[in-house]
Specification:
Blueprint: E1 14-16, E2 22-24, E3 33-37, H1 44-55, H2 57-62, E4 66-71, H3 75-85, E5 91-93, H4 98-102, E6 106-108, E7 125-127, E8 129-134, E9 140-146, H5 155-165
Parallel strand pairs: 3-4, 4-5
Antiparallel strand pairs: 1-2, 3-8, 6-7, 8-9
Amino acid sequence: MAKVDVGDVAPDFELPGTEGMAFKLSEHRGHNIVLAFYPGDATTVCTKQFCSYRDKADELGELDAKVIGISPQSVESHERWVEEQKLNVPLLADEDLAVSKRYGITAWLGPLARLTELADTPGGRYIQRATFIVDGEGIVRYRQVSRSGTRYSTVGQIERALAEIA
């Protein structure tokens, strides 16, 4: 499994998402895209992360980027979570982990980790919490991976990272 790093061309993908969206990365050339990979809908840290994006909607809206969430749950699960939490970030379903594997951010769910909220994972693998910023040319300009899953990129961190590539 290859690891995508800063300076690499971002692997293209197409995934279904909330609001009837079919998102294809290459169709967004000319725009900065923030890919926020997360382990699971309605889990504690993921809810904290995406509710922080909701609560900072004004700041998020001022960013020179579109923020997209990606996890292995179905579009139906995403729709329920968006409705429950009133989330404002589109969510994409990487149910077979194909995109996450291409970005090098899957890991095995070990025996101790099975005690977490991620009881059911595709093939025993899960998505690590990670943020990639892809510039308008399709190049990865920022990469942050939280192996423990407890840290996520805040709106302020995303804003600073975007300022550095401007």
